C-alpha cells in the first residue's frame, strides 16, 4: 500500500522551473520531429512553398528579354505589275518568304516589375511563416496527445492499485463471513464495487487506445508504449507577463504581421501598374520584297525603342488601389484582433494555472489523509471496530483523492503547455 502511495506522490512533486528554461522529454522531441516528416498537411505546405519560389522566379522573368522566331510563306495573286512602254515592273513578289528572329527587352518600367517581384517574395515569405506556424501547431498537438496518453496510463495505474486493494478487502470480508462476523451483503457490495473499478479501467483503456491511434496518425509511429510522464514538464511558471517580447515570438502574431506586409506590397504593386514601360525592340532575318529585285531574299535587321503609356482603363487602377488599401486596413485590424486574443489566452491560462496549483496543494493533503484513513480502516475492520460502510467510505475517498491529484496535475500541465505555445517556445529543438 505504501509503495502505491509513494508512486502517486512522485507524480505530484512540488517545484516548477522557469518556463523558458525547461527541457522537454527526449521521446516527445523525437515524436514531434517524426510528425514533421510524416504529417501530410505539412508536406502539402512545403510543396506550396516550392511553388511560391517558382512563382517568384516566374515574376522575375518580366525583366528578361523576350525572343521569338518567325517563318512565313505567302503566295500573292494577282501580283501587281506596272507597264512602262513594254517593260514590266513588279513592285511585290508573287512568292513572299520571310525567316527572322525578333526580340524585346524591358529597359525601364518605373518600379512596376520591382514591385511585382517584391509582392511575390512577400507571398513566398508568408507561406514559409504559415508552414512554420502549422509545424508549431502540430508540435503542440503531439505534446497534448502525449500528455493525454500519460494521463490515461496514470489513471489506469490508479485503477489497478485500487482493484488490488479491493481484492484484498474481498478476502478480508470472505474471512469475516466464514467467522460469522460479516453478512453476505458486505461481500456482494465489495464485488459490485470491484467490477465497477474494472469497468472504469476498461473505459480508460478504450480512451488510451484512441489517443495512441491519434498519435500514430500524427507521427506515423505505431509504438507509444514508452510514453510515461510525471507531469514535471511543462513546469508551470508563477505567472506569464504580457510584454512586447512575448508577443513578438507568437507564431500567429508573426504570421498576421507578415500578412500585413503582403497587403502593403500588393498596394505598392497596384500603384505601379499604371506607369509607362520603355522597351528595346530588335530583329534580324532574311526576306524578299526589297527593290529593285523583289524576288531575291536579302538579309535585314531593325532596332528601336518603344514606350507604352497607359492612358485610360475605365478607373480600373483606382478601384484596384482602393481595394488594396482596404485589404491593408483589414490586415492591420486582424493583427490587432490576434494580439488581443493572445493577451486574453495568457490571462486565462494564468488563472487556470493559479487555480490548479492551489487545488494541488489541497489534493496532496487529502491524498495523505485518505491513504492513512484506509490503512486504519482496514486494520479496524479486521478487528470489528468499524462497520463495512466505514471501510468502503475510506476506500472511495482514497480513489477520489488519487484521481483528483492526477486530474489537477494534468490540467496544470495542459495550461502550462498552452503558455509555451503562446510564448512561441519551440521545445522540440
Structural class: alpha+beta
Strand order within the widest beta sheet = 1-4-5-6
Quote the average pLDDT.
87
Q: What is the fold named in CATH at topology level?
A: Outer membrane efflux proteins (OEP)
Question: What is the domain total for the residues?
Answer: 1
Query: What proportion of the residues form beta strands (DSSP E)?
Result: 5-15%
> What is the molecular shape?
elongated
The CATH superfamily is known as Outer membrane efflux proteins (OEP)
User: What share of residues is helical?
Assistant: 55-70%
Poorly predicted ranges (pLDDT <50, ≥5 residues)?
1-19
- Biggest β-sheet strands, sense, barrel: 4 strands, antiparallel
CATH architecture: Up-down Bundle
Helix run count: 9
Distance between the termini: 40 Å
Secondary-structure element order, as H and E?
Answer: HHHEEEEHHHHEEHH
CATH top level is Mainly Alpha
CA-based gyration radius: 39 Å
Q: What does this 3D model show about the protein?
A:
- The structure is a single chain.
- The chain is α+β, with helices and mostly antiparallel strands and 429 residues long.
- It has one domain: Outer membrane efflux proteins (OEP).
- The protein is 64% helix and 12% strand.
- The chain has nine helices and six strands; from the N terminus they run αααββββααααββαα.
- The protein has a four-stranded antiparallel sheet, with no helix packed on it.
- Strand 2 and strand 3 form a beta hairpin.
- Helix 4 packs antiparallel against helix 7 and helix 8 runs antiparallel to helix 9.
- The two termini are 40 Å apart.
- 26% of the residues are buried.
- The N terminus is likely disordered.
Amino acid at each position: 500500500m505504501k509503495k502505491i502511495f509513494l508512486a502517486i506522490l512522485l507524480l505530484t512533486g512540488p517545484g516548477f522551473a522557469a518556463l523558458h528554461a525547461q527541457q522537454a522529454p527526449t521521446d516527445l522531441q523525437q515524436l514531434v520531429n517524426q510528425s514533421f516528416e510524416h504529417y501530410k498537411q505539412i508536406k502539402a505546405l512545403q510543396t506550396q512553398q516550392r511553388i511560391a519560389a517558382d512563382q517568384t522566379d516566374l515574376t522575375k522573368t518580366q525583366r528578361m528579354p523576350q525572343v521569338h522566331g518567325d517563318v512565313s510563306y505567302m503566295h500573292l495573286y494577282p501580283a501587281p505589275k506596272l507597264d512602262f512602254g513594254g517593260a514590266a515592273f513588279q513592285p511585290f513578289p508573287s512568292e513572299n518568304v520571310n525567316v527572322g528572329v525578333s526580340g524585346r527587352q524591358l529597359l525601364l518600367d518605373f518600379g512596376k516589375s520591382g514591385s511585382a517581384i517584391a509582392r511575390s517574395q512577400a507571398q513566398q515569405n508568408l507561406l514559409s511563416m504559415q508552414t512554420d506556424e502549422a509545424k508549431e501547431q502540430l508540435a503542440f498537438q503531439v505534446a497534448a496527445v502525449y500528455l493525454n496518453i500519460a494521463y490515461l496510463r496514470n489513471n489506469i495505474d490508479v485503477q489497478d492499485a485500487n482493484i488490488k486493494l479491493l481484492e484484498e478487502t474481498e478476502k478480508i470480508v470472505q474471512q469475516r463471513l466464514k467467522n460469522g462476523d460479516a453478512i453476505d451483503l458486505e461481500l456482494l457490495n465489495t464485488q459490485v464495487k470491484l467490477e465497477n473499478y474494472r469497468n472504469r479501467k476498461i473505459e480508460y483503456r478504450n480512451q488510451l487506445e484512441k489517443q495512441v491511434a491519434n498519435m500514430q496518425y500524427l507521427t506515423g509511429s505505431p509504438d507509444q508504449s514508452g510514453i510515461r510522464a510525471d507531469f514535471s514538464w511543462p513546469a508551470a511558471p508563477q505567472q506569464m507577463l504580457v510584454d512586447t517580447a512575448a508577443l513578438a515570438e507568437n507564431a500567429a502574431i508573426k504570421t498576421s504581421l507578415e500578412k500585413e506586409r503582403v497587403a502593403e506590397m500588393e498596394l505598392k504593386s497596384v500603384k505601379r501598374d499604371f506607369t509607362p514601360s520603355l522597351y528595346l525592340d530588335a530583329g534580324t532575318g532574311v526576306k524578299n520584297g526589297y527593290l529593285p529585285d523583289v524576288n531575291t531574299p536579302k538579309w535585314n535587321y531593325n532596332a528601336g525603342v518603344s514606350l507604352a503609356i497607359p492612358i485610360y482603363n475605365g478607373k480600373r487602377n483606382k478601384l484596384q488601389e482602393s481595394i488594396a488599401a482596404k485589404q491593408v486596413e483589414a490586415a492591420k485590424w486582424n493583427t490587432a484582433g490576434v494580439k488581443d486574443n493572445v493577451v486574453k489566452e495568457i490571462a486565462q491560462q494564468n488563472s487556470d494555472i493559479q487555480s490548479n496549483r492551489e487545488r494541488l496543494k489541497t489534493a496532496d493533503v487529502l491524498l495523505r489523509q485518505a491513504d492513512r484513513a484506509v490503512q486504519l480502516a482496514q486494520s479496524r475492520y479486521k478487528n470489528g471496530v468499524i462497520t463495512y460502510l466505514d471501510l468502503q467510505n475510506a476506500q472511495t475517498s482514497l480513489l477520489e483523492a488519487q484521481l483528483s491529484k492526477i486530474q489537477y496535475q494534468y490540467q496544470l500541465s495542459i495550461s502550462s503547455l498552452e503558455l509555451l505555445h503562446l510564448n512561441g517556445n519551440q521545445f522540440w529543438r
